[in-house]
Amino acid sequence: MPALWAAVLGLALAPMAGCHLGRPPSSLPPGGVRLDQVLVAAAEPGLADDLRAGLQGALAARGISGSGACPLVLEVLEASTQDQGVDATLRVQRARLRLQVQLLGPSPRRVVLTGERSYEAPADDGLATAQARAAAWQSLSQELADDAVLWLQAGVLP
User: Is the model's pLDDT at 10 over the cut of 80?
Assistant: First the structure.
């Protein structure tokens, strides 16, 4: 009878023999990465600073930033806003950010990330609209920075 149980247990565990438990190995070079350049052609004030701060924070939070590491270049391919709806008191706009992330070094790679965020502000208040737009850019910068770090670590996107 014990031989029968061993055979049943062996058959039950056979499909799991090829499974790997735990985290996949990192696709990063030893020493981590360092943010080298943030290239922004768009005229959005503070966008370059938001991207730099977001990516440096995300790299540090995951412990993969280094000083002698492979350089990382961020390039904003698109930073645009578009009206989604306007009435007498409220304006709804959508901010779209498209970002190219390039890891340079011995095995270079790149990915293009895109994010969108809607925001609203009073239709007749330019200051409130500018503040809402800045908050949208900051949120998009952080979201895409987190996605970029996930891509750097595992080579996949969420």
Answer: no
